[in-house]
What we know:
Blueprint (H helix, E strand, L loop, with lengths): L1 E5 L44 H7 L4 E7 L4 E7 L9 E11 L5 E17 L3 H21 L12 H4 L4 H28 L4 H12 L1 E10 L4 E7 L3 E7 L5 E5 L9 H10 L7 E2 L2 E2 L8 E2 L7 H10 L20 E6 L7 E5 L1 H4 L4 H14 L26 H9 L35 H9 L5 H9 L5 H4 L1
Parallel strand pairs: 1-3, 1-14
Antiparallel strand pairs: 2-3, 4-5, 5-6, 6-7, 6-12, 7-13, 8-9, 8-14, 10-11
Helix pairs in contact: 2-4, 2-5, 4-5, 9-11
Amino acid sequence: MLFTFATCTAYGFYCYSTTQPLLCEAPVRPDKDLAQKPSGSYQDLFNYPTLKYINSLFPANGTSMRGDPAKGLLRYDDFSMTALEPREEFVVGASMANRDENGDDLPGGLCWASWGVVDGHAGPYTAIVVKELLLEYVVDELFLKAGIDPHSPYRDTRPIFQDRPMQEVIQAMSDAFERLDNDILKKATHAITGSIPLQASLQDLAPAESSCSAVLATYDTASRYLYVANVGSSKAVLGHRNAQGTWQASPLSVDHTCQNEDEVARLRAEHPNEADMIKDGRLLGKTVTRAFGDLRWKLSARIQSIAHTRLFGHPLLPSFLTPPYVTAAPSISATKIDPTDKDFVILASDGLWDHLTGEQAVRLVGLWLARNDPSEPLIEERPAEVLDVVVADSDEDVPRFWERLQQGLIARKPEDLPAPGRDYSKVKYGDEKNWVVVDDNAATHLARNALGGADEDLFCALAEASMYPMRKLR
């Protein structure tokens, strides 16, 4: 099974690491005589990266890792390109092996593996907490349900990861999501009502004031079940072939937005006689119906009033009557996987799904698989001479290295410019007519085609986008 990850917010892709901006600053020329600068040379202040230059850096945002083919996990690919600082989006992952009561690994290797995408909103604080603690909370819940103290120094994992009933795993994941969110809100409530220093109060309050969506996939290598839990707008899709050999998409998660009629019906039932609760596709102004954090949609009016008075909190939302309106209770699916089918899973936040449907994303990975063998050596393992990349030969060579890179920073030629008056508001980023297969990494391949693919004008702008608010573009 191949796993690809892309986390994004209004169109940024992110994963493990933040890379340097694609646009380099123009070198300072202190000897230039500004008095002699000709009229109309404002454009000389900026250098626009060419497609060649962007392509030299774009693939570096992707990471590929080997899995355990014997356990049905072939490879993991991710792509990362941040649109906001500080970073609000993260990929989480962990593998778990069976251990005895002394903490020693037992034969058999990998037994469970988990991956997730966390997408922050209105700040990074909730996302950071969820990134660091969600997997730990899930494992702790599994221990608790097996009657084992999760804080024991040595933990025998055999009762945890062997022959666990499906409903028990689902309940453990659900309880972990809700318990983590409750802990975030409890800490915030104490910060609001307790007698602690202002600095500490604001720090404890931050993870509850911001919010995040999350999707977590956990694969049991023994039972071959893939469990997916999601909250908010981050989603998971399974790609598999039908009897005719055509790639098809199966959703593994649920959209928690006001566009989902089931979510709207649930909210109407929980909050009857509140006609103004959902307007223009938003829940009291919010696009998602489930999330971590978001104290403004969860804590009581009394607590929020204290926060507003003492800690510079927000005023109460209009039509705020019967909280909580937003929940962190996840939707969870369990899917039996046959490793011989060579299925794959795509995890991504809403930025990807805003521009590619699940079916399109699966077809794109299918196109990638038609030209790439994921069992081949990863690009990091290939001989250096086969890689068409520019690298610095040594530390001393760095200045010359950057000089060579900047040679690609030249203005567009007239024939490269788009047609006059092109209306970019009507351009489809992931238009199928522009799909290309040029990347070694499946997640990078998804990112490229969602950012314009073969449309050089669109791709260069969206991939670089350092001179305009990136959140508006991607």
